[in-house]
Specification:
With 245 residues, the chain is of the alpha/beta class. It has a domain at 21-83 and 132-239: Rossmann fold, CATH 3.40.50.150. The chain has helices spanning 10-18, 27-39, 56-68, 113-120, 130-140, 154-160, 178-188, 208-219, and strands spanning 46-50, 72-76, 84-86, 92-98, 101-105, 147-151, 167-172, 192-201, 224-231, 234-239. It has a 7-stranded mixed sheet, with helices on both faces.
Length: 245
């Protein structure tokens, strides 16, 4: 779709890009992420996403990275079908073995049975390996050169990046338990460059762990400013820029 000026419509481009990619990020939120990736184009650093699932938000961020420079690092446990377990209360959690170490997912904020059985489990019908499906979705959209998938946690990612690594945009959409979100913030914010943005999915939408972590680590932190709920469930804040001398 083109506008009267001959330029393509970003919203239409995003809708086409994510067509066929399962996920829960609404188009208005994806539009917001794309814009933030574009307005931070002048800053050093790349884009880091925590919680990639099948790549719905990753492909949008990757398209923005393609147009503005840099790449997207996607952190996820990418649990396989057999990594999920049903808890005593009927909810679901996962434990993923990576290089001989066990990493638990959704232990505090577990996944309710209805969304797991109705939305998550069917994603494994074509492949039992989410990482393979994620990579296939990225490749199908010609964006593989702009995406690096990291199967692990924010802690294992932080241990793997080289000295001097920086991020201009962080998107936190992984495990929604309070401890997990706090850990994502504490591990990754040190890489966020001054003037860079941090975004949270599912803020203000019923996930107490997400909201408490934002309050404890972001809104009460003098190192951040311009706090905004930009969409129904997307909260953002800017890391305070270094004052000009």
């Amino acid at each position: 779709m083109t506008t009267t000026t001959g330029a393509s419509s970003l919203m239409a481009d995003i809708e086409a890009l994510v067509n066929g990619v399962p996920g829960w990020s609404p188009v208005d939120q994806l539009f917001t992420l794309s814009l933030l990736a574009q307005v931070t184009a002048g800053l050093p650093g790349d884009i880091v996403e925590v919680g990639s699932w099948l790549g719905r938000s990753a492909v949008v961020l990757a398209a923005a990275a393609r147009d503005t420079g840099g790449r997207v690092y996607c952190i996820d446990l990418f649990p396989r079908r057999d990594d999920w377990r049903r808890n005593a209360d009927g909810t679901y959690s996962c434990v993923v073995d990576i290089d001989g170490r066990q990493h638990g997912g959704y232990q505090e904020q577990t996944v309710w049975a209805d969304p797991f059985l109705g939305q998550l489990a069917p994603c494994y019908d074509e492949t039992p390996d989410l990482l393979e499906a994620f990579q296939a979705n990225v490749r199908a959209r010609g964006l593989a050169a702009f995406v690096t998938a990291h199967r692990g946690t924010s802690a294992t990612f932080a241990a793997s990046v080289p000295s001097g690594f920086g991020a201009r945009l962080l998107f936190v959409d992984g495990d929604h338990g309070y401890g997990a979100v706090v850990d994502d913030i504490d591990r990754l914010v040190p890489y966020l460059v001054p003037g860079g943005w941090i975004c949270f999915d599912d803020a203000g939408s019923g996930y107490d762990g997400v909201d408490r972590a934002i309050a404890d680590r972001i809104t009460n932190n003098p190192g951040f400013d311009l706090f905004r709920q930009l969409t129904r469930k997307c909260f953002v804040a800017r890391r305070t820029a270094v004052p000009l001398r």
